[in-house]
């Protein structure tokens, strides 16, 4: 047991691992569906909750537990529940904390599938929703109702990287007896720790930066022992939207290099954003590291880095945007993000393609918008690849 608190980088490498009797240096993978008990009495005690230990891999697995404990240490959370995907993490929060008659206020600036999950699936069970501008605090307050249970945000938001003041929004939520849920996918705990700023729940798509190499699907919910450790965990135990041991092992390996990778992503993204601002065929560049970004000063206070996502609008609408995307030879045309490999996508027809034209307009998803998840290649190669379709 260490006799002093570990720093973030050390926690990312060392926390959560309990070696087996084999003395393995790397975390073991436990690819088993069930666990054997020493007696019928022990089995009864495990199932009854009076004795800790493994029961069934749908809700107890050592490799998954290693990942949960490590990510909880990085986010400063009491509890973490690992899920099968980022969307299943959001689903688990909604199912675990909401009931018929509750109301949710959600930012308009969220991943398109998040909007559809709330409206088309959770909404079927008697939960109502209001959608507001992420950065308009007056709109958040006006949208609150006596039955508002949750406020939900992405910050920075996908794909325009808008940022909300987490502490201010958390204070607003708590004054009205509501909870604040923050999707921390774009920053990860390496750049932002929402719980320290007053948020109640943090969700992640581990598929993105936590893995960092586009290898596996996974998600996570973090918060206190009561809401996450019991209410959300119950959805996992009974609903089965759980993370596999192999995927948990992949994410453990990803966490070991998270801090180093996020610094490199931030550095490349800043250089790319600055280069894009000088191009005559680009109408707008969205990146929190730019002084022109509306929440630049907030990002400086709230985050320790500006992230790896750069979005920009090309002149000429969808036709021009597709030309830029199709001209690339190195960047991967895919909607995933947070990868060591740079990726490029057209949000209006991919990540937000199922939204109505009105929803796209209110979320700022222009036809000429392109999102780049800036990877770890040399910045000059990224710039050269984008230049192919941008012209002079």
Automatic annotation (TrEMBL):
Its cofactor is pyridoxal 5'-phosphate. The keyword Transferase applies. It comes from Thiothrix unzii. Keywords: Amino-acid biosynthesis, Lyase, Methionine biosynthesis, Pyridoxal phosphate, Transferase. InterPro entries: Cys/Met-Metab_PyrdxlP-dep_enz, Cys_met_metab_PP, O-succ-hSer_sulfhydrylase, PyrdxlP-dep_Trfase, PyrdxlP-dep_Trfase_major, PyrdxlP-dep_Trfase_small. GO terms for cellular component: cytoplasm. GO terms for molecular function: carbon-sulfur lyase activity; pyridoxal phosphate binding; transferase activity, transferring alkyl or aryl (other than methyl) groups. The gene is metZ. The modification N6-(pyridoxal phosphate)lysine is found at residue 208. GO terms for biological process: 'de novo' L-methionine biosynthetic process; homocysteine biosynthetic process; transsulfuration. Catalyzes the formation of L-homocysteine from O-succinyl-L-homoserine (OSHS) and hydrogen sulfide. PANTHER family: CYSTATHIONINE GAMMA-LYASE, TRANS-SULFURATION ENZYME FAMILY MEMBER. It catalyses: O-succinyl-L-homoserine + hydrogen sulfide = L-homocysteine + succinate. This is O-succinylhomoserine sulfhydrylase.
């Amino acid at each position: 047991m260490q006799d002093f608190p570990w720093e973030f980088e050390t926690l990312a490498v060392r926390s959560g691992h309990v070696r087996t009797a084999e003395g393995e240096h790397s975390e073991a993978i436990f690819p088993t569906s069930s666990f054997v008990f020493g007696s019928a009495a022990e089995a009864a005690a495990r199932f009854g909750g009076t004795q800790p230990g493994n029961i069934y891999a749908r809700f107890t697995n050592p490799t998954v537990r290693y990942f949960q404990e490590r990510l909880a240490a990085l986010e400063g959370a009491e509890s973490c529940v690992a899920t099968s995907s980022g969307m299943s993490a959001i689903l688990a929060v909604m199912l675990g904390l909401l009931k018929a008659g509750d109301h949710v206020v959600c930012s308009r600036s969220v991943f398109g599938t998040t909007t559809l999950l709330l409206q088309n699936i959770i909404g079927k069970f008697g939960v109502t929703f209001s959608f507001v501008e992420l950065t308009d605090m007056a709109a958040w307050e006006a949208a609150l109702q006596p039955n508002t249970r949750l406020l939900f945000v992405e910050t920075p938001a996908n794909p325009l990287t808008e940022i909300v003041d987490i502490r201010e929004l958390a204070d607003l939520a708590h004054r009205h007896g509501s909870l604040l849920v923050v999707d921390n996918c774009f920053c990860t705990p390496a750049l932002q720790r929402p719980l320290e700023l007053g948020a109640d729940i943090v969700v992640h798509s581990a598929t993105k930066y936590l893995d960092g190499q586009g290898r596996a699907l996974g998600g996570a919910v973090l918060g206190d022992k009561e809401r996450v450790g019991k209410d959300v965990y119950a959805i996992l135990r009974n609903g089965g939207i759980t993370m596999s041991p192999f995927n948990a092992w992949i994410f453990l390996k990803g966490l070991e290099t998270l801090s180093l990778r996020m610094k490199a992503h931030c550095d490349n993204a800043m250089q790319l954003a600055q280069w894009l601002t000088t191009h005559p065929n680009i109408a707008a560049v969205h990146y929190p590291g730019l002084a022109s970004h509306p929440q630049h000063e907030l990002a400086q206070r709230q985050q320790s880095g500006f992230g790896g996502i750069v979005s920009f609008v090309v002149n000429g609408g969808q036709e021009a945007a597709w030309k830029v995307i199709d001209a690339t030879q190195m960047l991967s045309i895919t909607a995933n993000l947070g990868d060591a490999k740079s990726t490029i996508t057209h949000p209006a027809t991919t990540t937000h393609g199922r939204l109505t034209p009105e929803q796209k307009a209110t979320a700022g998803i222009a036809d000429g918008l392109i999102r780049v998840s800036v990877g770890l290649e040399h910045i000059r190669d990224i710039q050269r690849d984008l230049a192919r379709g941008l012209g002079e």
